[in-house]
C-alpha cells in the first residue's frame, strides 16, 4: 500500500469514528469537568478536550511535521457548542491535511518535541496510525467516566447498555 492509499484509509477511519465520538462529546456537561474517578486519573474536562483535540494533532503532524509541547496551544471552549465546533474543525482539518498531502510529505519523518528536545521521531504515517489509536483509547476512557456519572453512553461499535434500539 502506498502513502496516499494509507492516507485514504486513515481518512476512512477518522470518518468511521467521527459520529460516536461526537455523540460522546455532546453529552459531557461542563459542570462535571473537574470530576476524577481516582486521584491519579485526569479530570473529565481535560479528557473531553483531549478527545476533541486529537484530530488536530494529525493536521499539525502532516502540515508542520512536528508537535512541540512548548509551542502547541490548547483550545478552551466554554460551552458544548464551542466544544463541538472545535471538534468538527479539527476533524475537517485532519481530513483535509491527509487529502492534500503529497507522497513526499507523507513519506517524511514526524517529530515530537518539548522545546528543542526531541522526545521521539517516527515515520509520519506510523505517527498518524498511533494517533488514531491514542484517540480511540481516550474516547474509551471517556465512556467509563460517562458511565460512572450516569451519562448515557452512545452506541460505538454496537449497542451500549444505554442504547435501547436493540431491544
UniProtKB/TrEMBL annotation:
Keywords: Metal-binding
Domain of life: Bacteria
Transmembrane segments: none
Family statement: Belongs to the DinB family.
Taxonomic classification: Bacteria, Pseudomonadati, Bacteroidota, Cytophagia, Cytophagales
Pfam (any one): DinB
InterPro entries, per the entry: DinB, DinB/YfiT-like
Protein's name in the database: Damage-inducible protein DinB
Organism the protein comes from: Dyadobacter linearis
Amino acid at each position: 500500500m502506498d502513502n496516499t492509499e494509507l492516507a485514504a484509509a486513515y481518512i476512512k477511519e477518522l470518518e468511521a469514528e467521527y459520529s460516536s465520538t461526537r455523540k460522546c462529546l455532546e453529552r459531557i456537561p461542563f459542570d462535571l469537568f473537574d470530576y476524577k474517578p481516582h486521584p491519579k486519573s485526569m479530570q473529565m474536562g481535560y479528557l473531553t478536550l483531549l478527545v476533541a483535540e486529537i484530530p488536530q494533532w494529525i493536521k499539525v503532524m502532516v502540515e508542520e511535521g512536528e508537535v512541540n509541547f512548548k509551542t502547541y496551544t490548547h483550545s478552551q471552549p466554554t460551552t458544548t457548542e464551542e466544544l463541538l465546533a472545535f471538534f468538527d474543525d479539527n476533524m475537517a482539518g485532519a481530513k483535509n491535511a491527509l487529502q492534500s498531502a503529497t507522497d513526499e510529505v507523507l513519506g517524511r519523518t514526524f517529530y515530537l518535541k518539548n522545546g528543542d528536545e526531541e522526545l521521539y521521531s517516527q515515520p509520519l504515517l506510523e505517527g498518524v496510525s498511533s494517533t488514531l489509536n491514542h484517540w480511540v483509547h481516550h474516547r474509551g476512557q471517556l465512556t467509563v467516566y460517562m458511565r460512572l456519572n450516569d451519562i448515557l453512553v452512545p452506541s460505538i461499535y454496537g449497542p451500549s447498555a444505554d442504547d435501547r434500539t436493540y431491544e
